């Protein structure tokens, strides 16, 4: 059952990955990267819960925090670049 959920989450990562890959502008790529980061954190958390590995929950939380900070930094960089 765990593999089914992971497969669904990975399948839901295809549209953000395509937006990251072919985004017409910088903001589409930032949104795509954020979407992919969320899915990776979800897969890590799901594996930690299903496998009983508490370390993976910590890794998922850290990855989500770094992904959020990266998106904020990219947004600030993009905002300054357009002035």
Describe this structure in words.
This protein has one domain. Helices cover 89% and strands 0% of the residues. The chain is built from four helices and no strands.
Can you summarize this structure?
The chain is an all-alpha fold and 83 residues long. The protein has four helices and no strands. It has one domain.
- Which sequence of SSEs, written as H and E, runs from N to C? HHHH
The biggest beta sheet, please? none
Number of beta-strand segments: 0
Task: Evaluate the radius of gyration.
Answer: 15 Å
Please give the domain count.
Answer: 1
* Beta-strand content estimate: under 5%
Please report the distance between the alpha carbons of the first and last residues: 50 Å
Percent helix range: over 70%
Number of DSSP helices? 4
Shape by Cα distribution: flat
Q: Provide mean pLDDT, rounded.
A: 89
Low-confidence stretches: none
Q: Structural class of the secondary structure composition?
A: mainly alpha
């Amino acid at each position: 059952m765990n593999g089914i959920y992971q497969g669904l989450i990975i399948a839901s990562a295809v549209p953000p990955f395509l937006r990251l890959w072919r985004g017409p502008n910088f903001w589409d790529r930032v949104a795509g990267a954020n979407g992919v980061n969320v899915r990776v954190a979800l897969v890590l958390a799901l594996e930690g819960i299903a496998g009983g590995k508490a370390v993976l929950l910590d890794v998922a939380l850290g990855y989500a925090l770094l992904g959020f900070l990266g998106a904020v930094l990219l947004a600030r960089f993009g905002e300054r670049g357009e002035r």
